[in-house]
Amino acid sequence: MKYVDEFRDGALAQRLAEKIAVAVQRGRRYSLMEFCGGHTHAIARYGLAELLPPAVRMIHGPGCPVCVLPIGRIDQAIGLALEQRVILATYGDTMRVPASGALSLLKAKARGADVRMVYSAADALETARRNPQREVVFFAIGFETTTPPTALVVKQAAAEGLKNFSVLCCHVLTPSAITHILESAEVRQYGTVPIDGFVGPAHVSIVIGSGPYEHFAEEYAKPVVIAGFEPLDVMQAVLMLVRQVNDGRAEVENEFARAVTREGNLAAQRVVAEVFELRERFEWRGLGEVPYSALELRPPWAAFDAEQRFGLQYRGVPDHKQCECGAILRGVRRPTDCKLFGTVCTPENPIGSCMVSSEGACAAHYSYGRFRDIPVVSA
Amino acid sequence: MTKKDYLRPLDLRHGRVDMNHGAGGRASAQLIDELFAPAFDNPALRQGNDGAALDWPAGQRLVMSTDGHVVSPLFFPGGDIGCLAVHGTVNDVAMMGATPLYLSASFVLEEGFALADLARIVGSMAAAAREAGVAIVTGDTKVVEQGKGDGVFIATTGIGVLPPGRDIGGARARPGDVVLVSGTMGDHGVAILSLRESLDFETTIVSDTAALNGLVAQLLAAVPEGAVRVLRDPTRGGLATTLNEIARQSGVGMLLDEAAIPVQPQVEAACELLGLDPLDIANEGKLVAIVDPAHAEAALAALRAHPLGAASARIGAVQADEHRFVQMATRFGGRRVVDWLSGEPLPRIC
Amino acid sequence: MCLALPARVVARLDADRAQIDLGGVRKVVSLALVPEAQVGDYVVVHVGHAIGLIDAGEAERTLALFAEMEPRRA
To answer: Which superfamily does CATH assign the domain made up of B19-50+60-162 to?
Structure first.
């Protein structure tokens, strides 16, 4: 696969590992947050932790739209399917997220809810066309990468005059989440967030461009390097961040220059601006309510807003008392710090969102990395 | 004047299954006489009894295995539910190191199912059985109301001969043993996924469904008795699940070499596209063999010499590990754990 | 996050859709967000949509960067 395989080359990985080892200053520690779940996944899947020197610690951020989806929103989706008997079209990622009443969308399906997995928003629209006598609701989750396709289908639905299609909009915004982390309670407590730099999201940045991150670099004096999702991209970004930290720089650098420009994808931004506007507030799992961090449909598209169409109220639901997802998402605790990790909370029986999504810090660590927690004796 | 005992033959082109076919009366008998019996034809079936009396070699042990088949769609590139039902059970028996001889086949048909499709499936089963050298000696048919089935479900049970002293099983892997696979991983699962409406991708990947008893026989003949410790076919859950099962049963760990695991480029690409791992995807014509390191080369050569094992590879080794982790050295130079599936692999967006 | 892969545009089907090829697997995706993509271009595909174009020149430069011989002294 072109533009994929070359960026997974093992020999180049060794070279980059050496460069990082040389760049790291003696006695200095580097805490770098990879914001994006895709980077968490790459680090876990390729075993990157082993290639980085011990002085570099990767902190897994909240950039997994499934991980930050609050229980209350899944409850809304389940309610629509079970009580309102709609056809609930959803991406596969949400199916197993645990919600209230020991339910998930998958379990609701087992109880008779018409929950259908789709690969794309267009499939949800097609479902609406094929079932004119049923209400079809598309559970729209995702960061800025996934939002333009939702905007397109809303416009398409309007153009076709579809009367049975609506969207439960849970699209969230990356820059707001990063700001929230930088201004979290720990910051006020300790005076600074224990993060030296950010590996910026790859595909979100294709859409929004590298421009929006310049604000953090300036305001919070933290370097940001936008990185592609292949393992070599991640390593190169770590190298660039280490060098910035050494030099005392706080700039936005773009490692993913083959796909990301400063302005981003204007066509995509335009269609999103046409259909969506900022919500005043939105609850993020583990982060609490974050102002201006999520989207809702603009008034001209109200007919396609499932919350209005079905008169939905939002009820926040607190996490399990011992669930540390919130702290883990903010990078101040590790999966192994959570009392529930690996015992009560496993991929089979996830208590919190960090375990459900394969991008979540806990799931990634459990599936790919937990062998490092225990010394293994080789034959 | 009506002809005595005249029964209008089944319309195998346009006819459909109805509730009578499962009622045990004339219509059921007709289904057997005109469709199942001629297709599966063998001495036991020709007796026309509810059970089959079979000869059994003296002093040999008997291995029995059963499988239910609910695959959807029923017809897919490379096969159908019929041959899959034969291969699945033949393989389960073969994985014990036994020679499969006889199968039973139980059909649960949905009212309204097209007889033409049933005939096609039955024909495919018959061909698969002949090729594998097994006879389908007894069976059953039931019909459920429309909406209560998925066209057809098939359950097959198989029995095979196990020579005395042979003990091939999941608990027999030991540190130092070599892990072999007989070919590319993930083909069947990807072939099925490509037909799922909402995923809609085009690929030339076909299911690898095949009877592996010939391959197993060739392997066992090439090495001393006891050299092959474990045989298993990585079906649902894929290679990852199978290896974890064996690790758990044997109380060992494993270390795999990612670069050595054969995966077709299109399977890899399809999995990338959907966010799936080829190691989690079902195979229906491949086996995992864990062998004594002293005979690993001979075992690998024997597998490669057979048409179904041409792409066989050595993918890793068993190691002592009280935590029973299946670890993998990644192509990239790092290391990770290969965990087993928790639930069905669902395509993801993030 | 946001599983997306670079794929080659094999054929434009109409104003909005194209067939792409990734490692031999073909799929029809929407080009509504990258209308300027031509046959032979590589686009980044996410949930059935092309969301951006791959710049071949930048890709080469990035790979060259990885392979740079002299590490900078810290």
So the answer is: PurM-like, N-terminal domain (3.30.1330.10)
Q: Kindly report whether the global pTM for this prediction surpasses the value 0.95.
A: no
Task: Count residue pairs from A and C with Cβ separation < 8 A.
Answer: 137
Amino acid sitting at position A377:
V
Domain residue spans in chain C?
5-67
Candidates C46, C58, C62; nearest CB to A203 = C46
Query: Is the minimum CB–CB distance between C47 and chain A shorter than 8 Å?
Result: yes
| Domain of residue A218, residue span | 5-63+175-254
User: What's the total number of domains in chain A?
Assistant: 3
- Partners of B272 on chain C (C-beta within 8 Å) are 5, 22-23
User: Is C74 at the interface with chain A, CB within 8 A?
Assistant: yes
Q: What does the alpha-carbon distance between residue A110 and residue A101 come to, in Å, rounded to a whole number? A: 14
Query: Do A227 and A241 form a contact (C-beta atoms < 8 A)?
Result: no
Residues 66-95 of A with CB under 8 A from B: 66, 91-93, 95
Establish if A181 belongs to a structural domain: yes
B273 touches chain A (CB under 8 A): no
Whether A203 and C46 have beta carbons less than 8 Å apart is answered as yes
Nearest CA of chain C to the CA of A189: how many Å? 30
Q: Select from B10, B13, B7 the least CA-distant residue to B31.
A: B10
User: What is the ipTM score, two decimals?
Assistant: 0.90
A231 contact residues in B (CB cutoff 8 A): 332
A67, A172 contact by CB (below 8 A): no
What is the architecture of the domain spanning B178-337?
A: Alpha-Beta Complex (3.90)
For C5-67, CATH gives 2.30.30.140
- pLDDT averaged over every residue in chain C: 88
- Judged by CB atoms closer than 8 Å, whether chains meet at A93 and B348 is answered as yes
Average the pLDDT over each of A134-148, A174-188, B267-281 and give the range with the smallest value: A174-188
Question: Phi/psi of residue A30, each to 5°?
Answer: -125, 120
Single out the residue of A314, A276, A236, A296 nearest to residue A19, CA to CA. Answer: A236
Q: What are the structural domain ranges in chain B?
A: 19-50+60-162, 178-337
Distances (CA, A) of B159 to A105, B135, B163, B169: 41, 10, 13, 17
